[in-house]
Amino acid sequence: MNADDVRRINQQGWDKRVGEGDVWTLPVPPEDIARARRGDWSVVLTPNRPVPRTWFGPVTGRDILCLASGGGQQGPILAAAGARVTVLDASPAQLAQDESVARREGLRLITRQGFMHDLSAFADEAFDLIFHPVSNTYAPEVEPVWRECFRVLRPGGVLLAGFMNPMVYVFDEEAEERGELIARRALPWADVVDRSAGELERLIARDHTVEFSHTLESQIGGQLAAGFVLTGFFEDTDRGSPATGRSVLFPTCMATRAVKP
Questions:
Q1: N or C terminus of the chain: which is more exposed, having fewer CB within 10 Å?
Q2: Residue 119 maps to a domain
Q3: Does residue 156 fall inside a structural domain?
Q4: Single pTM value for the model
């Protein structure tokens, strides 16, 4: 399976998840938009921990790219807070959620369909801030994502990124659903490489998407190699993990703040 096949599967998979009401596809309610307009807002890069407001600085009038961040959640909140927001996502159904909130609330918000590794639709130095929640686990490679982010940010621009702790991919997910933690996999893990054809077929039928663990070297080192300077970091746990699962043992997600000098 090549990279284009992977992107097609994940694009279609997120369209299906919208139809199923996945938690990351549910548009924010009107009251959240009303609070954001009053300056009372928060958004997440990782499942449970709001991003510190100090990581953003002022947002009013700033050009923000919500990267692989469709679903009618972060983009509309930031637009209501006064930013000029563009949402890029591979899934048309996810973008439709942002468009629905924008119509409902009278927000100015641009949507673009595309993949996170290819920001060729945007000029150099087009944005002040990029908001990139946990999503590059669906990308075959992350280094091209960081390079493109660096290119489209203005000097002094900020990249806020969330990603999975690669350790979560060590564990057998079927055992974890039974309340057991069994370390079975070598890292880095890729569904399309490390599963048998039958396992991969069953995974796609059930979850609709395929994932890649990525290394911390590519996630954090990749940002540094692209030219960013890291200025912030925090850890979080993922929503919905079994009570006896990985989330009670170690942080399952991470977020970074990086600046383009």
A1: C
A2: yes
A3: yes
A4: 0.96
Taking only the tens place, the pLDDT of each residue in 204-226 is 999 999 999 999 999 999 999 99
Pairing of strands 127-132, 153-164: parallel
Per-residue model confidence as pLDDT tens digits over 228-248: 999 999 999 886 554 456 777
Q: Say which amino acid occupies 236.
A: D
List, in order, residues 6 or more apart from 18 with CB less than 8 Å away: 25, 71, 91, 93, 94, 96, 97
Does residue 166 sit in helix, strand or coil? helix
In a domain, 152, yes or no: yes
Residue 157, helix vs strand vs coil: strand
Does residue 45 sit within a domain?
yes
Per-residue pLDDT tens digits for 132-187: 999 999 999 999 999 999 999 999 999 999 999 999 999 988 888 787 889 999 99
Of 40, 37, 38, 61, which Cα lies nearest the Cα of 50? 40
Q: Is the peptide bond before 29 cis (omega within 30 degrees of 0)?
A: no
Number of domains in the chain: 1
Segments forming the whole domain that contains residue 74: 3-165+213-259
Give the model confidence (pLDDT) of 44-74 as tens digits: 999 999 999 999 999 999 999 999 999 999 9
**Can you give the CATH number for the domain in which 156 is found?**
3.40.50.150
Which residues, including other chains, have CB under 8 Å from residue 185's CB and lie 6 or more apart? 169, 170, 171, 172, 194
Quick check: 135 and 69 in contact, CB under 8 A?
yes
Q: Is 87 helix (H, G, I), strand (E, B) or coil?
A: strand
